[in-house]
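queue> holo job accepted (copper (II) ion)
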Amino acid sequence: MRMTMTMRLAAIAAFTSLGMGTATADHHNGEDQQQAHQHDMSGHAAEAATDQPAADPHAMHKNMMHSSEVKVVHTAYDLPAVSLTNEAGQSVALQEILGQDRAVVVNFIFTTCTTICPVMTSTMLQLQKVLKDDASQPYYVSISIDPDYDSAEVMRKYAARYGADWTFLTGTSEDITTTLQALDAYRGNKVNHFALTLMRAANQSEWTRVEGLGSAQELADIWHATAM
Ligand SMILES: [Cu+2]
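queue> job finished
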């Protein structure tokens, strides 16, 4: 079971390696730039991102390394005063939904994604299960990076399909862009999306930023380490 999931993650990562490389290329972190350069130098990244990524015999191996590359950063964000729309179609203030009085875990998805978003949604479901006996429960939120397509109704159906009972947010493209930029989750185009989970314990100003497709257990460990 565990093995199967790992293999699946690696296979999915193979489909997205160029996207992730592109996403990190315009990141200002030196390490990321170096990583992006390595992708370019390898000459395999382009192959891995075509319609036939499995044709690259090294894709599986490379991306198994990828899937264990979870980068954790602690940082503060200023939440913009925008109102988004939840899956029930209600208007909600971002500053309230991610209010400092509550512990939150946030990821970024779009419903038509066939690569990393399904994995991230499944991981969030798993994370909920792993943390279910904790005294303090985080408030889970998924924010759409494709608000033009992801209406409240589309988000509601997506949540139902996964049996996900947390908050799914969409909004006008302007408000979503403002939100994503404030959380350093904006990459210009949904195709450039990357795996990102943000966590913040209650009454803390600092966020824990997790980049990469971590397993639910990895995310739970990071949560426990930071949300004390
Ligand atoms: Cu996706």
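queue> The chain has nine helices and eight strands.
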